[in-house]
Amino acid sequence: MSLKLHKSKSLDKLVIGCIKQERKAQHALYERLAPLMHSVCLRYVKDTAEAEDVLLKGFMKVFQNIKKFRQEGSFEGWVRRIIVNEALMYIRRNKTMYLEVDIDEAQEAKSINVDHLQEQDLMRLVQSLPLGYSTVFNLYVIEGYAHHEIAEMLNISEGTSKSQLSRAKHLLRQQILEQEKSMNDKNQLG
To answer: How far apart are alpha carbons 54 and 52 in whole angstroms?
Structure first.
């Protein structure tokens, strides 16, 4: 039995191939980045089929604009930004977002201890948040955008962005505490 190892093309070679509009390079780049970018889509779009549509539209934009990538920063980061923007455009087109909340109503969120949670569990909790809360939480906590950037992206005030994040953290904290209480109750019964 012989085992053939195929050396995967480097990302730089794939990008060059995509610039030349080579189908094999496009396919290889998609196969390489799609799983990670699909998980990015799922953070914003809860339905799997809709997330796949966002992913495909995002990659179409990647391939259409790949000549604009200036080799500054990581290519993966550039693709992620396109995918996030596509997800946000999807939300704007298809979902009613109630993002306008008075900052004075928001409570200051205390830190959440999530060390005991699996990543899947935390992502499920984030996805269960109302759309506005989860969108701002993802943009701020996971993607690393500043509140002024989020406000511009979502066409809301900076105060609303801060308020949404605070409320998202508050709801996550409540959900985590409820899970911990439920687990403790089960442990005491068992």
So the answer is: 5
Domain ranges within the chain, ordered by starting residue: 11-94, 103-189
Which tens digit of pLDDT belongs to each residue from 104-156? 444 444 444 555 567 777 788 888 999 999 999 999 998 999 999 999 999 89
The pTM assigned to this predicted structure is 0.70
Residue found under tokens 């943009």: 139
Q: How is residue 67 annotated by DSSP?
A: G
98-124 burial code (b ≥16 CB/10 A, e <16): ebebeeeebeeeeebeeeebeeeeebe
User: CA 151 to CA 165: how far, in whole Å?
Assistant: 12
Class level of CATH domain 103-189: mainly alpha
Fold exhibited by the domain 11-94 = Rna Polymerase Sigma Factor; Chain: A (1.10.1740)
**Does an H or E element contain 105, and which?**
none
**113 secondary structure, DSSP code:** -
The length of the chain is 190
